[in-house]
Amino acid sequence: MAFISINGYDFPSPKRGVKPTVSTIVDAGRNANGAVVGQRVGRDQYKIDSLEWPWLPAETWETMLSILSDFFVYVTFYDMVGGGKKTLKMYPGDRTAEPYWVDDDGRPLFYRNCKVNVIDCGE
Fold it and tell me: Three-class SS string for 41-89?
């Protein structure tokens, strides 16, 4: 099973350094005494940051980007809070890569330092 699947497509294993983040959303801050007066709003939300692949064939990266071209995607990943796989509606952040080894027509054959993060929609 893949570390991360998006819209049912198993992405290649990313390099070390992936940063899953769990955020608790609150509706207010602190009072004049510094005590928390807010309450939790909804459920915890997730961000999977620093997904990076050091080297990918152009076809693989292009397939991954085509899957990420929809604004909303369904991401399946290992939930460090609940243990086990979790699927959430998310959206992709910036997607970057460096073209490497291009053919005579200027088409990249490989990409390096391919990066993306995915952010929970809260639904």
Answer: CCCCEEEEEEEEEEEEEHHHHHHHHHHCCCCCEEEEEECCCCCCEEEEE
State the sign of the Cα–Cα–Cα–Cα dihedral 117, 91, 93, 55: positive
φ/ψ bin of 23: left (φ > 0), alpha (ψ from -120 to 50), beta (otherwise): beta
Contact 21, 88 (CB under 8 A): no
Q: pLDDT in tens for each of the 123 residues of the chain? A: 799 999 999 999 999 999 999 999 888 778 888 888 888 888 999 999 999 999 999 999 999 999 999 999 999 999 999 999 999 999 999 999 999 999 999 999 999 999 999 999 998
What are the boundaries of each domain within the chain? 4-28+37-120
How far out from the chain centre does Cα 61 lie? 15
